[in-house]
Amino acid sequence: MLNFILKRLGLAFLVALTVSFISFSLLFLSGDPAIALAGEGATDQDVVAIRELYGFDRPMLVQYASWLVNALSGDFGESYYFKLPVSSLIADRLSVTMLLGLCGISFALLTAVPLGVIAAIRPNSIIDRFALFLSVAGQAMPSFWFGLILIVAFSIKLRWLPPSGTDSWRHFIMPTVVLGYYAMPAIMRLTRAGMLDVLSSDYIRTARAKGASEMRVMFKHALRNAIIPVVSLAAVQMGFMLGGSIVVESIFALHGAGYLAWESISRNDLPTVQALILVFSMFYITFTFLADVLNAWLDPRMRSS
Amino acid sequence: MSQNNFRQDIPLLSIDNLTIDIPTAAGTLHAVRGISFDLKRGETLCIVGESGSGKSLTSLALMGLLGKNITPRADKMEFDGVELTTASARTMRNLRGARMSMIFQEPMTSLNPAYTIGDQLMEALTLHGSTNRKKARARAIELLEKVGITAAESRLSQYPHQLSGGLRQRVMIAMALMCEPELIIADEPTTALDVTIQAQILRLLAELQREMNMAMILITHDLGVVARVADKVAVMYAGELVETGPVDEIFAAPSHPYTRGLLRCIPLPGKTKRGSVLGTIPGIVPSLVGEVNGCTFRTRCEHASPACRGTIPLHTSPTGTHTFRCIHQPEDLETDAVQSTGANA
Amino acid sequence: MTLAPSTNSVDPLLQDIVGPTPGQQLRRRFFGHRGLMIGASVVAVLLVIALLAPVIAPHDPYAQDLLARMKPPVFLGGTWEHILGTDHLGRDYLSRLIYGARVSLLIGFVAALISGTIGTAMGVAAGYFGGRTDAVVTFLINVRLAMPVVLVALAVVAILGGSLQVVIGVLGLLLWDRFAVVMRASTLQVRGREYVSAAQAVGASTPRILLSEIMPNILNNLIVVITLEMAHAILLEATLSFLGLGVQPPTPSWGLMVSEGKNMMLFEPWLVLIPGAVLFVLVLAINLMGDGLRDVTAPENRS
Ligand SMILES: Nc1ncnc2c1ncn2[C@@H]1O[C@H](COP(=O)(O)OP(=O)(O)O)[C@@H](O)[C@H]1O
Ligand SMILES: [Mg+2]
């Protein structure tokens, strides 16, 4: 188990390193970042001055190394647009995104797991069909459109919920639903498939032969085994969701890290964009790592090996 | 006490005309048809028959463990006076694991991989009243020792994947015995195990059955085991009980052509040459989907005649304990059997 | 001490299967699969509409008419002149929707082709050669999954400028992960089969084995993933365009139309509802087709 964790940690570290390099290289995608930064109508002297100021005249790998060293100590440079340290900008915005992500994944799990379980217990029933419909529709639903529909329905027509902002918990309801619905189909399908698989296994028959009640068979014996892969999927989805928060946050004007990403991308604020890509990747890497460890711990076969 | 004595006389299990139909895409599969037998306390019934003959379905029906879409029908299926076909889910649950237990064919997959051996053993007890964990634990250790597992106490915290198939089947046996059931059903408990372990497990089962005075239904392919442990034998073929009776009578005077075929398949010490192929019965089993009539063994029977398509009479021996279903009288078959044995040799 | 061989037992399910030939079965499953049929029909209709856009579209999708701005659709009291009304610049909404189908399908198809080529090459190499190649590919898949797609795509489009080519290129270079994962697994499965060992034994060259032994046997999985990733690319393009960093105006893209309609959403919600609904239907149909193809070509995987 310890061996597994160390190996997995090493992999996570390598992935993080590679991602950091890729997000750093984005700066050079436009050709000369100094020209891009100087903007139109800048003189050659301006460009040279900027190049020296930001150290763009050094070899790329040297620049990467110094960026990385700074990044490791929490210094992502200064935002071109906001003229503030990128790290403090992001730190200010992250809590909203984290809260949103947490709400989203909770919503997804709380709807998808019960639906998946019921669908598996009663295959082809009305609930099964409804669950299938929800998941098929969810996979095809453009989340920006879904968000706008909710705003039209619940903010404009019914006037139940505020269309934007972060002032109260009511502001988070629609964003949570939109973000959670994005993760729901996959979780539901996996829960259903896992439960169906487990329910036909021999040890479920054994549990029934012992005289266990159906409830006990479903929850203590079946779900405990079927949930193991769902846990890691949920973590992966959580990582994807934080990356996808940019859409939801821009629709509902939630001033989180996703909204910041949208603002900084629109304004060519590359240091902020680089840092955000790295931060979101780190979240994904951390979540998948934790999922793998949790998974190994939940499965006795892996725990003891 | 007197009541107990009275109960010794009436059968613990009494089945009359058990029928199991399974709906399939191709039509109704008449998997089990008109099975009847009785079992007294402490008695052992061995069910033999080739795979697919409905042995597992019959035992699952007794336990109330058939799938949702399969409903068994019977004129009578009583366990100690409780009619099982009409019993509520709760009644069945209270019987299962407490008064009747079952051991399955696949020890590798029959234990829940997520829980320890101890948890699973103790659950069998706590499900039926006893909530005292300490007592349950002591009982689990006692039974693990009884089924011949060493270092029983430390095994309690192990997970199924840490045990070999033979050990897992011993755990399954221990689990089935946790509540001292009156009936134990063992469905080919050793088929999935190594040959060397098979004999040990069967011997263990037979010993425990005698020691705890349980009734046992043992499904097995091993006719040697049948000869040693059975009180009664039931021979199943294509969903029907073709012959049933006390073990001595079945072995001494097998009456149904299928039973004769089976018994011919046993290698006899000294008589069967090493490496010689076991006798098999050639032919095809008819489909049980849709209408089934007459004797289903006629496609493979050396005595088959057009009359086998009609109604098949049930012969009962003078003692009333040995029955078989065939259009021929046992005497008719005697001569043929001698001939065919001769031809076979 | 066995009894008669089990070949004698009758499996009722087997009897049912022995009947028709594999080809007949495949056809029967194909046409009998409702989701697949519905999905394929809708996709076919939209494809024809996209191809025949110049013929079908009632108006020029770029022609502005500032005197006829935001005319409602006919079912909301508009005229038959503009069946689905007009947008904020007075352009015919139906015509823009029809041309938008071209953009969506083109982007989806080409992006899936690019990412399919990359992902398949990586996946097959990893599955076939194993060892270090596999380790590298698996690592690259991990790296790719760790990058937030929308963010990276937005950033790259913002840097390079939003044009159809850039959007297609970015999506093509970003969406290869599922191809690599699935193709790797399928190749691993096929690699151990006898015909591959046989080809290796007679000394067939590696490219030959890959092309004539491996590829034909993983093709059905590839087609399924192409379908599903096409839907994915279409959704992503719409998202990028919605956020203003995809296809640029005045190109008619459904995502862009939703974005443009957003500002008038309070009074004219249909401006948002219609293009989004069409996008939803197209993606839904492609997904149904992909799921259906998976069911039909791999019956043992049906849940
Ligand atoms: N759930 C089921 N659905 C369809 N057919 C079944 C099912 N269970 C058993 N059968 C069929 O019923 C017959 C008897 O099965 P079984 O009782 O398992 O035989 P045995 O235990 O004697 O080998 C077999 O032909 C088998 O294919
Ligand atoms: Mg069986």
Automatic annotation (TrEMBL), chain A:
Membrane topology according to the record: Multi-pass membrane protein
Keywords carried by this UniProt record: Cell membrane, Membrane, Transmembrane, Transmembrane helix, Transport
Gene Ontology CC annotation, any one: plasma membrane
Residues spanning the membrane: 94-118, 130-156, 168-187, 226-255, 275-298
Keyword Zinc found: no
Domain ABC transmembrane type-1: 94-291
Pfam families: BPD_transp_1, BPD_transp_1_N
Cellular compartment(s): Cell membrane
SUPFAM superfamilies (alphabetical): MetI-like
InterPro entries named in the record: BPD_transp_1_N, MetI-like, MetI-like_sf
Biological process terms in GO annotation: transmembrane transport
Family assignment from sequence similarity: Belongs to the binding-protein-dependent transport system permease family.
UniProt-recorded name of the protein: ABC transporter permease
Originating species: Parasedimentitalea maritima
Automatic annotation (TrEMBL), chain B:
Cited InterPro entries: AAA+_ATPase (IPR003593), ABC_Ni/Peptide_Import (IPR050388), ABC_transporter-like_ATP-bd (IPR003439), Oligopep_ABC_C (IPR013563), P-loop_NTPase (IPR027417)
GO CC, alphabetical: plasma membrane
Subcellular location: Cell inner membrane
One MF term in the entry's GO annotations: ATP binding
UniProt keyword annotations, A-Z: ATP-binding, Cell membrane, Membrane, Nucleotide-binding, Transport
Membrane topology: Peripheral membrane protein
Biological processes, Gene Ontology terms: peptide transport; transmembrane transport
Annotated ranges, domain ABC transporter: 13-263
One Pfam family, short name: oligo_HPY
Superkingdom of the organism of origin: Bacteria
PROSITE patterns attached to this UniProt entry: ABC_TRANSPORTER_2 (PS50893)
tRNA processing listed as a keyword: no
Major site of localization recorded for this protein: membrane
Protein family per UniProt: Belongs to the ABC transporter superfamily.
Annotated NCBIfam families: oligo_HPY
Protein name: ATP-binding cassette domain-containing protein
Organism the protein comes from: Parasedimentitalea huanghaiensis
TrEMBL record, chain C:
Ranges for domain ABC transmembrane type-1: 101-290
A GO BP annotation: transmembrane transport
UniProt topology in membrane: Multi-pass membrane protein
InterPro entries per UniProt: BP-dependent_transpt_permease, MetI-like, MetI-like_sf, OppC_N
Record's keyword annotation contains Transmembrane helix: yes
Keywords for this protein: Cell membrane, Membrane, Transmembrane, Transmembrane helix, Transport
Transmembrane portions of the chain: 36-57, 103-129, 149-176, 267-286
UniProt xrefs under CDD domains: TM_PBP2 (cd06261)
GO cellular-component term (any): plasma membrane
Record's subcellular location: Cell membrane
UniProt xrefs under Gene3D superfamilies: MetI-like
Entry keyword Transport: yes
Predominant localisation class: membrane
Family: Belongs to the binding-protein-dependent transport system permease family.
Protein's UniProt name: ABC transporter permease subunit
Protein source organism: Parasedimentitalea huanghaiensis
